Amino acid sequence: MQIVYSADHARQHGRGELTDGRLMPVVEKPARAEMVLKRAQEVGLGDIMPPRDFGREALVRIHRPDYLAFLEGAWAEWEAERGGETDCLPLIWPVRNLRAVCPTHIDGKVSYYALDAGTPITPGTWTAARASANVAMTAADLVADGTRAAFALGRPPGHHATADQLGGYCFLNNAALAAQRLLDRGAERVAVLDVDYHHGNGTQAIFEDRADVLFCSLHADPKQEFPYFLGHADETGTGAGEGYTVNAPLPWGTTAEAWMAALERLCQRIESYAPDALVVSLGVDTYKGDPISRFALDTSDFPPIGARLAKLALPTTFVMEGGYAVEEIGVNAVGVLQGFEGG
Ligand SMILES: NCCCCCC(=O)NO
Ligand SMILES: [Zn+2]
């Protein structure tokens, strides 16, 4: 399986994320991608190629221009205001009884464009986020060119990012950009399957009113887990997209048996949709040893996931999302890909 990778991911390395009531060391760090790359090379998963730069015209197919302008200029504005000793994080949100009018001050702007305070903007964020987006679109192009499957080994991840908001360690929605790229290359229908432990609120929001992308996700129940405010089973799409969003929320402690049963239901929905291509938001934070998650999948449970996805017999673009057990992320993520290849 072809792997697309850019060392520019390492330009995203936050100095802290707000969690557990304090600024903690980030879990979304460069070692994650390096460990997956190392494992892919160890098992000879496939050739590794750099991304092509698709430019801003590809990003605006999914993201709002004002949001892209914010991301590009945020660090410079933050540094001018505060110096470079701390990362840019929000401190207030336009919640109930407030108005979502974009402020001019960087504190207000980052709050307007962020859904959480766990996603630090750093000097290298814009570079890393664009590289991750280009990695995903390059992988999608490989699949559009006839490759059976490709792996976008990028970070920062993307599935929490909406058209105009960052959050959950995400800035640009790599999986959504990959799906759009496949449509722009001639696919009529694309299914996005999100197997990350967390609900892909960004991907759902981006495609919720569209019938040309089916969004399916199994994830920790938002009543218990981040992102808390999207991902319920009664969210089925809106307008022309009614029926093209499928959520399978699962409780803390979910075992591989229950998780695979939910996956089976989503795979059957994908089969009935009969897409031209599949994009998989591949998070492996469903692993029982993940430091921020509470499902119970073991390393041996990951290859069967790939094997089931292979039975869909669709051109498939795997896009790296979450997974924070750094020692096991490689064997778990590559395990899915080996299972897909029948390895
Ligand atoms: N800091 C709160 C948890 C962010 C979740 C990140 C993730 O893995 N999403 O898939
Ligand atoms: Zn996750």
From TrEMBL:
Keywords: Hydrolase, Metal-binding, Zinc. The keyword Zinc applies. It comes from the Bacteria. The keyword S-adenosyl-L-methionine does not apply. One of its GO terms (biological process) is epigenetic regulation of gene expression. InterPro entries: HDACs (IPR000286), His_deacetylse_dom (IPR023801), His_deacetylse_dom_sf (IPR037138), Ureohydrolase_dom_sf (IPR023696). GO terms for molecular function: histone deacetylase activity; hydrolase activity; metal ion binding. Its cofactor is Zn(2+). Residues 27-333 form the Histone deacetylase domain. PANTHER family: HISTONE DEACETYLASE 8, HISTONE DEACETYLASE HDAC1-RELATED. Belongs to the histone deacetylase family. This is Histone deacetylase family protein. It comes from Rhodovibrio salinarum. The lineage of its organism: Bacteria, Pseudomonadati, Pseudomonadota, Alphaproteobacteria, Rhodospirillales.
